[in-house]
Amino acid sequence: MDAEKIDPRILALMDENPGISTAEIASSLALDEDLVRQRIDFLADTREKLLIVDEEIDALTALKVALEAEGYNVIVARDGFEGIEKARTENPDAILLDIMMPGMDGFEVCKRLKSDPSSEHIPVIMLTAKGETDDKVEGLDIGADDYVTKPFNLMELKARIRTVLRRSNI
User: Fold this and answer.
1) Which residue range(s) make up the domain with 134?
2) Are residues 40 and 73 in the same domain?
3) What's the CA gap between 10 and 58, in Å, rounded?
4) Tens digit of pLDDT for each residue in 49-102?
């Protein structure tokens, strides 16, 4: 059962019985208690959520730490397939997407996200070493909301994140 179906049922049980335990919810819905606890934690976190999709673990970790220090809830994916899955299940407020990844590149990930009604509304910032004008135009043409080249200035990236989040909340 996916989050779209689980979350409303959990919330309904909590509304009916405010003192209900995670064990009781899990039993009532025939779900694993750890899954219920995870979904409740997810529903309780009101921070803006960012998904970073990049296969470079060092860059991923450093950016995650810097953005968490700004108060964002940061989730990560190591490739395009995982990025698409996490975009669907985690419903991030914005996605930072590398282009050069094994399996499925960032251009294809962006196309798929923007063609899916469940994720088309999520702003995408391409964050990549591919800095040629043709690459930037392609990224923006397929639906990216912004395009930042590596190496990037962290202050500028944070400003761009705030901008796309502000635009998406209008």
Assistant:
1) 49-168
2) no
3) 37
4) 999 999 999 988 999 999 999 999 999 999 999 999 999 988 999 999 999 998
